[in-house]
Amino acid sequence: QIGIQITGQAIGAKDYSVTANFEVSNFANDWCHSHGIDIIHGEVDHYPLNIDPGKNMRFAARQSSWRFYGSEGVALFEIATRLLFIYW
User: pLDDT tens per residue, the chain (88 residues)?
Assistant: First the structure.
């Protein structure tokens, strides 16, 4: 795991019924590089950024308007030549 802890929690929002907040903590001695995000359904309010060693970063995804489907996507990170995918 190279010292990364991932915490995700689905919560209800004021304007949207499906919201997902993610927090990625980098406990390693290397940078955690964000290689982007691919949204299948929904929108991302805060895009993931690079994470300094010993720091954390948060990003949020939500459904678009009041669609029948929620939010779906994948975020890609790299740390010490290893890839980390977050799929929701």
Answer: 344 444 554 444 445 567 788 888 999 999 999 998 998 888 887 788 899 999 998 888 888 776 667 788 999 999 998 999 999 8
- Amino acid identity of residue 39, one-letter, is I
Structural domains for the chain: 4-87 (2.60.40)
Q: Parallel, antiparallel, or unpaired for β 19-26 and 43-46?
A: unpaired
State the residue for tokens 């949207």: 16
Q: Which of 65, 60, 5, 13 lies closest to 32 in space, CA to CA?
A: 5
C-beta separation of 64 from 41 below 8 A? yes
Which one, of 78, 33, 36, lies nearest residue 52 by Cα? 33
Distance (Å, whole) CA 85 – CA 77: 6
Rounded to two decimals, the pTM is 0.70
